[in-house]
Amino acid sequence: MTDPVYEHVLWRLRLHGFATPPFALLWVKLLTDGLEALPPEAGRRRLGLCASLVRQALAYNPYDPFLHKLLGQMAAHGRPSPRFSAWHAAVGKALSGAAESSLPEAEGMLQEAGSDPAAVLGLADPGQPPLVRFLALTRLWEMGEADLLLPAAEAFTAAGPGALAGPLLAFAALGAGEPDLAARLAERGAGGLFSHAFQARLAQAAGDRDALRAHLVRALAFEPAQPWAVYGLHVSRVPAPDPMLVQRYQVEVAFYTFNKLDVTLETLESLLASDIGPAGVTLLNNGSTAFSPEDLAAGVARVAQGRPVRLVQLPSNVGAPAARNWLRSLPGVAEADFLAFLDDDVLLPRDWLAHYLQDLSQDLSAVVVGPKGVNPGRPRTIQYVWRFFGETGEHRIRFTPNAPMLPDFGQYDCRRPCLSVMGCCHLFNLRLWERLGVPDFDVRFTPSQVDDLEHDIQVWKAGGHVLYDGRVEVVHRQDAGKAGPMSAAAWGHVWGNHMKLEAKFGGKELADLDAASRGADDTHWRMLVAGLVDILPPESRDIFTPAE
User: Fold this and answer.
1) pLDDT in tens, 528-544
2) Which helix (H) or strand (E) holds 115?
3) Do 121 and 50 sit in the same domain of this protein?
4) Which residues pair with 254 in a beta bridge?
5) Which of 69, 407, 501, 515 has minimal Cβ neighbours within 10 Å of its Cβ?
6) In-domain check, residue 94
7) Residue 534: inside a domain, yes or no?
8) Range of the domain at 343
9) Total domains present in the chain
């Protein structure tokens, strides 16, 4: 018999990628509420998952004394792997005699430090307990303060209890473009879960699929309830996209700009440096007032260096939805097989288009595919991944977070269906768009905000799919981690457009759309778990296979 609470927690685990301590404790509470009323086997299964979630959280933060205590209380449920037991024993030895701090105390100190990087750095001082130092370093990571973070991380992990955090903090160094420091940090500690994850990331970057699979299997042998590693195994078996895909189809790439001359030209330069084959490129000047049409035309000619770029100059700003609709309707664009819309402030990986074309040619129900969006700066941090409905009702919509967990160690590098993807670089199957009758972008969301999200909802409403491909990492420069706060007027516009979005859909319709998008995601997950039966550890198969 299916346990809805158990399945809900597994879905949340897949959504967030990993059980960090706050999520693990929340999910443990969900799993243990009403436990006494369950059949014995269902209760044992829930408690086994609880123990697995706590072990996962402890692997992330080995300095929290409450997690150690909670794991001790769960010793009778979900026997840990020998690898975890060996690591946990080494952790206990490393923490012996170290100064302790409770999580509420440590978080209170971080709250007092606020958004001042220097104040946060002060909490990473050697005089502070390891828990406080660790949380301060992860906060600097979240803030994108590489120049402060990396020296402090190397000092913290050099010896003693701090070395336990070396493999996790290695990902911050890697995201800051410091591979040598990352390698040093990864070698420290007790060789736990993040040691395997780090080696998997290196193998993926090197294109070594055999090594990638081996390290992911070791990560699952350490702790089996890790969806990110299962997704990674699936990706390791997906062939690299054929570079000739960009020659095989008629593709158009279109973007629009308003008052961003230099950034727009850098986006164009990044686009033309990527592998787009003979794809057509169109840029729409959306009534910019900060520079003249002649300035933009000269800049485009300088960057394009003879490559054809169609430039459309509008006398006034028609907003993002109308600009996209205008671009799609242009002769030459409307006849294409695929159309990519970009924002005017992105930096693209070289092979983005081949990955997208592979996705849309393999999933014949997919209308659009989008990327893993990251913030600029050092270290790179997650800005946007997949989104789903978090809560729906009668003209009520709450979405799941755009960035479920900030530290990125490879848990978002997968492919999966979802409700919506980031609109800064997405590719549409135009023929399927037309065949399903998906509407244009809604101009009522002018000038911008939620227009692309609403359009993805319309894709599902028409019977199509939306795909996320985390193999494509796009730097989106607009919402950098250090950007200033939005004005009250800007927030008013965002919430106003959200209210318009809610007014478009009734409760039954939203519930159906939620069921469709989650159902496609669930089907994809079951398919990939079944396809990995020959390589998944038995403990992982037991956790992720629905009970009969």
Assistant:
1) 999 999 999 999 999 99
2) none
3) no
4) 282, 341
5) 69
6) no
7) no
8) 245-519
9) 3
